[in-house]
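[audit] Reproducing an earlier prediction to check determinism. Same input, same settings, fresh worker. If the tokens differ from the archived copy the diff job will pick it up downstream; this log only records the rerun itself.
[audit] input (116 residues):
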Amino acid sequence: QVRLVESGGGLVQPGGSLRLSCVASGFTFSTYTMRWYRQAPGNERELVAAIPSAGGSTTYADSVKGRFAISRDNAKNMVYLQMNSLTPEDTAVYYCRVNVRGIFYWGQGTQVTVSS
């Protein structure tokens, strides 16, 4: 079955960096767009970044443009989110997501906390 597992979260100081990873299984990873979402306490889940199946044209939320970078390695079934210049407003649980034949699959999430 489809499975997504995120990792790489943690506690980081403002201005720091983290790299999140998501390993996928149970579907043909290389043929699907992958997305990162985040959800802060009291907020709705929001789209952070997306990358199409072959890479290339990525999209970002305005709040992370120029600071975050999404990438993927289709040989390893991995999608990454490089996060730089982190601020406390980036504190959230980060999830990867895929839509396989009309069904949305989510990982369990990884907590990112930006605090001094």
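[audit] rerun output stored. Observation attached for the diff report: Residues 32 and 89 are 29 Å apart (CA to CA).
[audit] end
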